[in-house]
Amino acid sequence: MRLFRRNMEKRCAYCTSGSVLNEREVACPYRGIVGTADHCRRFVYDPLKRVPPRPAVLSGGKYSEEDFQL
User: Which of 14, 55, 64, 68 has its CA 20 to 30 A from that of 8?
Assistant: First the structure.
């Protein structure tokens, strides 16, 4: 069973050697300060650095108590 996609998008923000400085910059020991969307041939994917998208918010105004009764 595969937990991650094989063709993961290469980004310095997801690399094991990069350190995220802010939303737009990563400190790379090989290339210096680069953008988060950049990548190089030394890229190694680190799944723990990837932040999943936020879940959708359920609007509470559309439902009533009768909708949740059997």
Answer: 55
